[in-house]
């Protein structure tokens, strides 16, 4: 059976992701994987510099402590920022993908991967799934490198984000007047309802006012987009276009992202990430991938990329992407029998199920 591997991004896993990772961490067969992966987290802090990381992540990233905590303690506040959530996401996806008897891709299952797609940060796991890795030992070693690369990329993004000035009092007062349902302002917001041309026109009207420009970072469906930019700029847009965002059926939800992903504001991070990859690891070239992986900046097959990790970083950190276009390209070029979702979120899965129905594809969708 021809299988398209499907990896979700940051968002809303079913239940606390840390709890699911703790269960995997306690399984003896995963000891080698976690030893290598957690060493990768520590290596990333050495690469970026612990003193520099302490500026924007003062508590560090004690992932081992979180996983090894006895019982099922509450998720610590430090595990809710974008760096921690991104690292935990990648750890989970790579752990679930491991070869072995419990793998969803065990030979006995008759599933043959023919390509991979990843929603936003899930693109890193999609690329990893196409690397020529064999055996559990080799897999663990490669996973450690990949976890280090993702951790470095997330740290670099937060390193270059300028400290946001506190919005002026009048702006805060006007936004507070929207009521508690308006949410806590942040650097990204999910918008449901307006179609892309209408939303683009609203963004154009907002211009380059105080706080900078807002952009459409993610196109999830014709009526579901994610805006990205400085928090103050998003607040001003929300207020200026109140009539649009308060229409029946419309919804504006600030996300918990601690950096404006898919925004030109993170352009400076890409050069740093590219240097890190070239200096500390062997660059991945597209012709070394074992199957097609579709980038999310455009629906292009990354097998034709001269520098896969650089391109993935650029697409996930500072370029917009169109998820329906990526899914359509993968379905058209690979004609899979099954789209196998390796999680952990529900949003990307729901979006892809909807796209399968709209496209008339005969492929089934299943989650591990």
From TrEMBL:
Keywords: Transferase. Residues 87-355 form the Malonyl-CoA:ACP transacylase (MAT) domain. The keyword Transferase applies. GO terms for molecular function: transferase activity. InterPro entries: Ac_transferase_dom_sf, Acyl_transferase_dom, Acyl_Trfase/lysoPLipase, Fungal_FAS. PANTHER family: FATTY ACID SYNTHASE SUBUNIT BETA, MALONYL COA-ACYL CARRIER PROTEIN TRANSACYLASE. This is Malonyl CoA-acyl carrier protein transacylase. It comes from Kitasatospora cineracea.
